[in-house]
Amino acid sequence: MSSDKFQVFYTGATGYIGGAVLQLILEHPQTSTFSIIALVRDAAKAHLLESKFGVKTVVGSLQDVDKLSELAENAHIVVHTADADDEGAMKAILAGLKRRHEKTGDVPHLIHTSGAALIADSARGAYLSPRIYSDLDIAALDALPATAAHHTVDLLAVQADEDGYARTYIVVPGYVYGAPSGPLYDAGIAKKTTILLPWLADVFARRGRAGVLNGGKNAWANVHVHDNADAYYRLFSKILAEPASLGHGRTGYHFTENGECTLYDMCAAVGAALVAAGVASEAEAEPDSLAAEECDRYFGKYGDFEVVDLFFANVRCRADRARKHLGWAPTHTADEVLGTAPELVGAAVKKHGLPAKA
Prior knowledge:
Elements: E1 6-11, H1 16-25, E2 34-40, H2 43-53, E3 56-59, H3 65-73, E4 77-80, H4 87-104, E5 109-113, E6 133-134, H5 138-142, H6 151-163, E7 167-173, E8 175-177, H7 183-186, H8 196-207, E9 211-212, E10 219-224, H9 225-241, E11 253-256, E12 260-262, H10 263-276, E13 288-289, H11 292-298, E14 301-302, E15 305-306, H12 307-311, E16 317-318, H13 320-325, H14 335-339, H15 341-352
């Protein structure tokens, strides 16, 4: 790895989102001008990344804050696709970028991954909100409370940009879905599963019928995993070629979405798949109402979030910035989300060894 190359520090290389992004960056036509070093928890996967893909690795986790700071300090660009809510990791990365700036005068770049739960409301399935956020509406984004999901860490990145020692960009994906493919997935390096619809499939397979909270009238923006990766790739490419053309900090939020689905439609797709799999009857195809006790029993928490509150919130947004400024043109449409239900239900039925109904 030549010291005169542009240095890229990468987190989340083995993740569902991060793997799809990394394999695109590895195909960049200017790969000979930069080198990538990734922080990877799994030593075997780190070895595969080095031996098969030429990515230098350091074995460690986001809790290894000294490693994070050192690796960030040596980087021109940090691509952070790991945990959106790890405040300690973000502080360590920013500390490294700040040291770099103070020592060299360079202004490094940080692409941080947040999530569209940032704009989630408290609908609990009861209504479809008329509010749709645009990432070009800076006033609306500025008005989000610091307590919004993921936002504490986002604001650390924004403040670093305000302080002038880094240029920061925050990618805010909707529900990322789809079966990813490509060399990192084929090699067993990157994770292949996402969260929202697989979670519903698992819960409702165990329950024996799809359910819905308060009618499931809320909607979630969604984006296919490979369309999402293309937005990151285009942002990364712009940083290499035309960084002055990019909004950053407060003006550097990039939603990714290509349509939306209501939670009722998602739950109904799971219900139909349960019938097709033989674990629910035709009379049980339509989702029934989830009781409060069932919400507690089946959903629980994901990190700091009550899962049922998050899933049955309105998360409605438009990726106007990426379309306008990055030339992003996603090809996978929202109806494809529902088409993933049969495979996800099949996996849940197999996992739990569920018998077919007579």
